[in-house]
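quick one, 160 residues, struct below
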Amino acid sequence: MKSSDENYACFLADESQQIALAQKVAQHLQSSFVMLLKGNLGVGKTTFARGFVQASGFDGVVKSPTYTLVEPYPISNNRMCYHFDLYRLADPEELEFTGARDYFNENDVCLVEWPEKAEGFLPVADWICEFSHQKLGRNLNISAGTNKGKNLMLQVFSDF
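---
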């Protein structure tokens, strides 16, 4: 585990550790937030998103939005969590036509898988989470892109 106030790196041995981290993030996050989830297929981006959404107060099935681009979930504090999966996005302008820009607001949380597919469309991320395969688990590197992201990093990782 390596950390600073802008970066955090850790090893997650299995799915339960990914979910535990997502739950910890949800526990501390009480405001709007933009989180970009990067990494190859099968590294746990959707697992992390599912853990976050459920720990944020959504009591239902969290599915991957691969074919719908975005799935909205009502979460705590009268907020929505918009879970994007941009894997099949051909052009960032497709998001503009769906009205997705409205989802990035001062109240809601946006989790974006495959953000590189929407370069130039997305706002500055509070966190960029990069997942990568490791022999028996996953490496996770988190970079804070805003003061809000740095503050959350301090809260989440002070005792993780």
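The helical segments are 15-28, 45-55, 93-98, 147-157.
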